[in-house]
TrEMBL record:
Protein known as: Aspartokinase
Reaction(s) this enzyme catalyzes, per UniProt: L-aspartate + ATP = 4-phospho-L-aspartate + ADP
Domain ACT: 380-446
Organism superkingdom: Bacteria
Originating species: Lactobacillus delbrueckii subsp. bulgaricus
Length: 446
């Protein structure tokens, strides 16, 4: 049996966390492939190393001194080196980084240094091999992961008889230039390594005991979810449950490898299992009707009004062509008889918003067009919801009882999630209301 163990930033935030990581790894000889993020926050006042590195890059762009920020990164690693008695030449490593910063700044190179340094320290501390992700994780030039090539490189460069540490979050393009994934991408690295070595389980260690029904920053002491399907996980993490990157599912799903989300601070907790099919276990222990309640703020809704629009063939194609021209992906398209709305993430559209509105008005001869920002999307996810007639009605009336105004409603035919648009400020009260109605009360009844 073999396992990939990925430790998130919170698990390697300081030397005390490194000690917990070592104990977890040594407790199980199957934990052979170790993937690490960059040091995360040690406390409320602290900062993630990756955030600090992005901040350094911004200072360089605006020609402002980054010295104090860079020094706080140096201090963090020096504390780890000192407390754990490591020999790593950190002064030399930081000198190299500074030299590269002074020459020609490759942003991806700079922000990947957190994972690189954490990986070096952890490998020495565990007496394990170190494999630089730039040598074993390969991207295509379009920015997507080259899974086949990464598999080939990993197999060729990792000694199967030894434990290995691989930094997460980055890899390289075919020409060797370093490239990073999107934020939280170390989860994807873990999944690529799990795929390459066909492991039995991919353990993802973080600071919560798996997935909870709702974000613990919103609901105090929420119910822990024992298992979710890959597809529920995708929907929950895409819609804000950022425990795991939503793209981490693909490499493991290909080989049906389960992901086990675990808590570095409570290793005795079994955490959440994420797998392709939960039906066998569900038959033994029925799950809650709702698996998860998540949400994201800051969407923009563009509503086009035109009489008989739903009967006009080709209208949607023309609308989508305008968004495609500006390379903007769309979240959802609620339609009524005379209106068409397009929901997009505000950060993706804000730069071109007025150009897009002008073009839509000009090309589509609209009666009216309205733009609303500060919109949120709330997702209620559950694999057993499809067997429950009236679920959407109950959810909507729960929100109605709390005087929460519903802006849009979306449900795909798989009936696995209902996505509801509300105003930004209503998102947290909406999550609380649904949790209270469907989880707290169900908990009392059980
Ligand atoms: N539904 C949820 N269940 C558990 N945690 C959640 C959920 N939604 C959001 N979170 C947040 O995700 C955090 C873990 O993700 P992250 O900060 O990326 O961890 P790491 O640094 O270990 O990668 C938790 O601390 C928690 O605040
Ligand atoms: N350090 C990177 C990659 C990552 O996955 O981090 P974490 O596991 O702490 O979310 C980031 O902050 O985005």
């Amino acid at each position: 049996m073999s396992k990939v163990v990925k430790f998130g930033g919170s698990s390697v935030a300081n030397s005390e966390q490194f000690k917990k990581v070592k104990q977890i790894i040594l407790a199980d000889p199957d934990r052979k492939y170790v993937v690490t993020s960059a040091c995360g926050k040690s406390g409320q006042e602290d900062h993630k190393v990756t955030d600090l590195l992005y901040l350094c890059a911004a200072h360089i762009t605006y020609d402002v001194s980054y010295e104090s920020i860079f020094q706080s990164i140096v201090d963090k690693y020096m504390e780890i080196k000192r407390s754990l008695g490591l020999k790593i030449d950190l002064a030399g490593e930081f000198a190299k980084i500074r030299q590269n910063m002074a020459q020609n700044l490759n942003l991806d190179y700079l922000v990947s240094r957190g994972e690189y340094l954490t990986g070096l320290c952890l490998a020495e501390y565990l007496d394990a091999d170190f494999r630089d992700a730039s040598q074993v994780i390969r991207f295509h030039y379009d920015g997507s992961i080259d899974l086949d090539k990464s598999q080939e490189l990993l197999k060729a460069q990792v000694d199967p008889g030894r434990r290995v540490v691989i930094p997460g979050f980055y890899g390289s393009l075919p020409n060797g230039v370093i490239k990073v994934m999107s934020r939280g991408g170390s989860d994807i690295t873990g999944s690529i390594v799990a795929n390459a070595f066909d492991v039995d389980v991919y353990e993802n260690w973080t600071d919560v005991s798996g997935f909870y029904v709702a974000d613990p920053r919103i609901i105090k002491d929420p119910v822990q979810i024992p298992r979710v399907t890959y597809s529920e996980l995708r929907q929950m993490s895409y819609m804000g449950a950022n425990v795991l990157h939503d793209d981490a599912v693909f490499p493991v799903r290909q080989k049906n490898i389960p992901i086990n989300v675990r808590n570095t601070n409570h290793p005795e907790n079994p955490g959440t299992m994420i797998m392709n099919d939960c039906s066998e276990l569900d038959a033994q222990e029925p799950p809650h009707v709702i698996t998860g309640i998540t949400g994201k703020q800051d969407f923009t809704v563009i509503t086009m009004v035109k009489s008989h629009v739903s009967a006009e063939a080709g209208f949607l194609r023309k609308v989508l062509a305008v968004f495609e021209k500006f390379q903007i992906s769309i979240e959802s398209v609620p339609v009524t008889v005379d209106t068409f709305s397009i929901v997009v993430q505000t950060k993706k559209i804000e730069r071109y918003l007025y150009e897009i509105v002008a073009e839509l008005q000009q090309d589509l001869h609209l009666d009216d067009i309205q733009v609303e920002s500060q919109q949120a999307m709330l997702a209620v996810v559950g694999r057993v919801m499809r067997q429950m007639p009236g679920m959407s009605g109950k959810i909507l009336s729960t929100l109605g009882d709390q005087q929460i105004n519903i802006r849009t409603i979306n449900q795909a035919c798989d009936e696995q999630s209902i996505v509801i648009g509300v105003n930004n400020q209503d998102l947290v009260p909406a999550i609380k209301a649904i949790y209270q109605q469907f989880i707290s009360e169900e908990r009392v009844e059980r």
